[in-house]
Amino acid sequence: MMKAASQKGVSLLGGLVILAVLGFAASTAFKVLPHYFDYWTMKKIIESVPAEKAQPIDSVRAFYEHVDAGMQVNNIRDLDARKIMTVTLDDDVFAAHLQYEQREPLIGNVDLVVKFDHEFSVRKP
Fold this sequence. Notes:
The chain is α+β, with helices and mostly antiparallel strands. The chain contains three helices and three strands.
């Protein structure tokens, strides 16, 4: 007969609790991570303006068109560049302010909110 002190492992109830916590964490990650991927892609699109050789980006309108084209290529459909970003042109430098938030329902009336706010200073190509 084995003594209780020599037994090791997780009980059935303990295993279910661990499984529930891991499931909740995975569900939360699957809801939030796509928004972060979209944000990182938007940052890359904005920072790629100086390297653009195909078309000249010499106005605010051309800047927005470049961002719109990058969003379309990267399949970012739930954001509108003109609503989430303000762009100004001073001398040869674009000042772009990317600011928006996304909400994802979690449980009942509890939502996950991710808020993005970043300023860019990008030279004209």
